[in-house]
Amino acid sequence: MPRKFVVGGNWKMNGDQKQAREIIENLTNATLDPNVEVILGVPAIYLPLAKSVLPAKLELAAQNCWKVAKGAFTGEISPAMIKDIGATWVILGHSERRTIFGEKDDLIAEKIGHALDSGLKVIACIGETLEEREGGKAEEVVYRQTKAFVSAIGDRWSNVVLAYEPVWAIGTGKTATPQQAQEMHACLRNWLSGNVSPSVAELVRIQYGGSVTASNAKELAGSPDIDGFLVGGASLKPEFVDIVNASS
Ligand code: PEP
């Protein structure tokens, strides 16, 4: 079965109520390729607003969550709460969570396991830093990051999208070339085949993320192992429509 192209917009900590409405209205009125799954990663505080104006063709993601359902965890939100307001996805392991907030592989794995237990789908992010790439360690790093998720995911890979986001390409305007991205995606699929199962390797969708724009999306989308994008900055702009439609 072909893998359905999946494009996520990660708004990060941007926007206000007005802009949230405008972005969703623009997407509502746009012609989006019906063969593409589109997920909006909206700041938690605006998720209910987004849900109230969201057309059926779009899905909603939180950008983070905690690893238990409720309790004394000031400032956190749980998968149960995310589901309660009608969102169906959560982005976990983003490099900004890893670098700015110090999240490590084992915590991310716990969060992934609990989010899946709670019935959310997960965009699980991985990616190497520039130093790691230049040190010839890019593959080793993304394999380590992916391996950390394996037992938490178990047999629930159909509810997981992997997002390969080289840290040096996030928010920098420096995109991986289609060759660099394809090469890593193919390596990851091969790793999944050997370390999880050939059928998981075949079914799991691997997004590329890192300075994707309307002008580079089409070429990236043409690579056989790139099954979608996770888009930061450009997801706040009208060009997100062209990124969603880049695989058609
Ligand atoms: C991201 O935040 O996941 C991302 C890829 O950001 P940008 O597209 O701005 O590089």
Automatic annotation (TrEMBL):
Enzyme class: isomerase
Keyword DNA-binding: no
Pathway assignment: Carbohydrate biosynthesis; gluconeogenesis; Carbohydrate degradation; glycolysis; D-glyceraldehyde 3-phosphate from glycerone phosphate: step 1/1
Superkingdom, taxonomy of origin: Eukaryota
CDD domains xref list: TIM
Record field: catalytic activity: D-glyceraldehyde 3-phosphate = dihydroxyacetone phosphate
PROSITE patterns: TIM_1, TIM_2
EC number: 5.3.1.1
One MF annotation (Gene Ontology) recorded for this entry: triose-phosphate isomerase activity
A GO CC annotation given for this chain: cytosol
UniProtKB keywords: Gluconeogenesis, Glycolysis, Isomerase
NCBIfam families found in the cross-reference section: tim
The family this protein is said to belong to: Belongs to the triosephosphate isomerase family.
Name this protein carries in UniProt: Triosephosphate isomerase
Name of the gene encoding the protein in the UniProt record: tpi
